[in-house]
């Protein structure tokens, strides 16, 4: 049975503007497809997601629709640019909204996110990819997602320059290799968790 992935692109730019974060997210989805994982992608800023920490902040909040798609997926892909050494504000808002998962449990008391795998793509023209990865993975793990070995891939251009990933020409083999490893490990782990769920605690 094929798996399902859902990618949240945390670019600050609305569609159809070019986005390096969307590019790396689509590369991750393409690599996952090699392992029988179907997937799709949205840019969070194309939806009216409200600030907050609940499942639904009301008044036309765009998060419930995205949340439904997250819960229908086996693998969550997050892609974020680096801004001032940090994940984007959009990415941080996504993590804040995922905080609501701490209150969502099944009949055995397990978080509803248990059994779901999360991976990350990071892009920027400054240093900080490891710091961003650490911040995002810690938050995702806190709310119940499982992080596979080598679950992050990234590209950073020269610091204090303006070249972005989507305009960088040929992509480095290191980023491509990391993306392929991410996909293989994520698909493997998602199948294991689907077939053998975590035990009740």
TrEMBL record:
Signal peptide: none annotated. Gene3D superfamilies: 3.40.50.360. GO terms for molecular function: oxidoreductase activity. This is Multimeric flavodoxin WrbA. Residues 5-159 form the NADPH-dependent FMN reductase-like domain. It comes from Lentzea xinjiangensis.
């Amino acid at each position: 049975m094929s798996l399902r992935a859902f990618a949240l692109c945390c670019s600050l730019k609305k569609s159809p503007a070019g986005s390096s974060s969307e590019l790396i997210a689509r590369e991750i989805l393409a690599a996952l497809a090699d392992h029988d994982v179907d997937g799709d992608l949205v840019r969070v800023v194309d939806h009216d997601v409200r600030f907050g920490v609940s499942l639904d902040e009301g008044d036309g909040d765009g998060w419930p629709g995205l949340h439904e798609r997250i819960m229908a997926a086996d693998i969550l892909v997050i892609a974020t640019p680096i801004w001032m050494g940090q994940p984007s504000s959009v990415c941080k808002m996504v993590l804040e909204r995922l905080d609501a998962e701490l209150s969502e449990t099944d009949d055995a008391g397990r978080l509803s996110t248990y059994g779901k795998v999360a991976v990350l793509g990071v892009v920027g023209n400054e240093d900080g990819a490891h710091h961003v990865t650490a911040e995002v993975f810690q938050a995702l793990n806190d709310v119940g997602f499982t992080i596979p070995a080598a679950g992050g891939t990234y590209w950073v251009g020269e610091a204090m320059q303006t070249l972005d990933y989507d305009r960088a020409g040929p992509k480095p083999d290191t980023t491509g290799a990391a993306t392929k490893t991410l996909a293989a490990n994520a698909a493997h782990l998602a199948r294991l968790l689907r077939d053998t769920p975590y035990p009740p605690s």
